[in-house]
Amino acid sequence: MKKYVSEFFGAFLLVFIGSSAAVITKGSILTIALAFGLAITISAYTFGSISGGHFNPAVTTAMLIQKKISAKDAAFYMLAQFIGGLVAAALLLFFVSAAGLPTDALAQNDFTQISAGVAILVEMLATFLFVTLILLVTDVRLGNANFAGLIIGLSLVLLILTTISLTGASLNPARSFGPALLAGGSSLSHLWVYFVGPELGGVLAAVFAKWLTAEDK
């Protein structure tokens, strides 16, 4: 149970801190990227030793493919991540409403300048890079556990800066789920893109990282 609670809080912190920086603080793109990146760094160092620090269904999918987590745990990890993101979005909605801000702006992910197909490609590529870096830096044989949280957080910052103007930079179905569900509109109708793209990226990362870290025979 402690593992699932840790995944809940990791996803909660990611969505609440990052989305609050965008909606309540109304920060710049750099501020928003840093908020999400630092949230995942803090969560990784705080909860990583308990659950492994996934906080993202795409990461959990990759770990499942690499047989680093059981199917049962993977299912409960994902459930905890989605609930964590939803609770964070609900709390954000409460604060936004109390402050008299628009309740349809919850830092939900969406795309307006590109097609759904291109959006999937962007999310798939960014998530592939992100999850590959996670798998490599946390690899038992080749990784660096001491700096893993920092590297993961910085990677997320850079990938958000790279893709936020295209898709809002999700890279995580649990990050997109809560805000889209509560804000509605086109972000909700486009939510499937933020499931398909990141999950495909996670699958590709699992296969690539496994090949890259395999010992030569």
UniProtKB/TrEMBL annotation:
It is found in: Membrane. The chain crosses the membrane at residues 32-53, 74-96, 116-137, 149-171, 191-212. Its main location: membrane. It is a multi-pass membrane protein. One of its GO terms (molecular function) is water channel activity. InterPro entries: Aquaporin-like (IPR023271), Aquaporin_transptr (IPR034294), MIP (IPR000425). It comes from the Bacteria. Keywords: Membrane, Transmembrane, Transmembrane helix, Transport. GO terms for cellular component: plasma membrane. Belongs to the MIP/aquaporin (TC 1.A.8) family. This is Aquaporin.
